[in-house]
Amino acid sequence: MQSKLFKRKWVIILCLIAMAIASCALAACTYEPYDPLEDGYTATVIYDANGGQYSGSNTSGLRTFRYKPGVTIIEPGTGNGGVEAPTLASNHITGWYQATLDENNQPLKNADNEFVDENGASIFEGQEWDFTQALPEEENTFTYLVADWALNYSLTVEVGEEAKAAGIENYVDQNYDESGPVTIPDVGFIRWRNHTVRYFHLGDHKPLLTDEDWAQLVLSDENPHITVYAEWLDGDWEVINFASQLSNIRRNANYFLDSDIDMEGQSLDLDVYSGEFNGNGHTISNVVVEKSINALVSSDDIGMFTFSQFGSIHDITFENCRFEVSLDRRANNDNGIFNIGLLGGTAEDLELGEFTGIAFVGCSIAITRQGQGANSEVNVGEGSYYGIFGELEAGQTFTPAQGSQRVTVTLDGADYS
Q: Is 285 exposed, middle or buried (0-12, 13-18, 19+ CB in 10 A)?
């Protein structure tokens, strides 16, 4: 009896399995894939990359989409509906044009495989497709659009004949695929040993310095290529044209001042400077430097600027510059004297022969003594170096440039001179 029941259970199970398999097979037989035509998507649009390439495994350069009649279609690359823009190296799309089709909906082409209309003229001489216009209202229309390509806009940096003779090539940036202002060239791409790009110009030697200058250089279909010229300096320099560039002076870099600069009351940090600062005949004005001497480790030689043994500055005018010093401790040296000057408290170890062409106009030093430094003595130099160096070593001389004015020095608010 148990044996019969067991066999009956297995028969039922096998029947259920057979029914499930039959049900699945029936479902598979009755499944129909989605047909966009049934939902009214009867308008066909082909986007032909015309030598360009779409991403993915499709290498045909064609994308086919279905639309409903009477709607506007998507412009490739606009991010709508997933119609991507094709790419072609060093080229950009200037527009999409409608191909003329034969009776088989194939685009007409001439013997050179160029897209032409029924008269043999290039379709790209006609009207560009307007993506705000609607497709025809009737069903089963066929629209074939072709990409028109043009070489990317370019910015060329002409390095000059001397640089070319040294093996330096012109720099060409062909990555501009949209119209608009050029980007200021990165001088890191234009390297000439022991030379520095002073500025760029348009062939007229008028420097292109500001963002506003460069914003005037606009690439477009009417002006697809722009050339700027590099003006060079001998040596390795960092060229200074703006106050902001003086806010982060590196101690061991060489600087070339190429403009007059108004610091508008900002400080200028030239402390323990070991490079060469070439003023190039320009003026730095309205600098205010404040120093408080209150730590036992502070030097007794105090300068608005200080220089290491190899540092120097030359051919520059300082105008309306003010050095404010607060002495809050006693001097540590044997004489108990602070040496104070604009270019340093002392010229010891400096090669003053390299400190040439330096003028001071309307500059001042204001010294305030307080706390432990209330009775401190100060030395601000004399004669031609008064207020410029606190002291010179034996055999050293310093003469300011012609036109320089005597530095004004006050001690605790009173005229020190």
A: middle
